[in-house]
Amino acid sequence: MKKSSNPYLKHLFVCTKEREQGEAACGKAGEALCEFLKSYVELHGLRGKVRVTRSGCFDLCAQGPNVMVTPRHVWYSKVEKDEAEKILKEILS
Question: The pTM is what?
Answer without folding.
Answer: 0.89
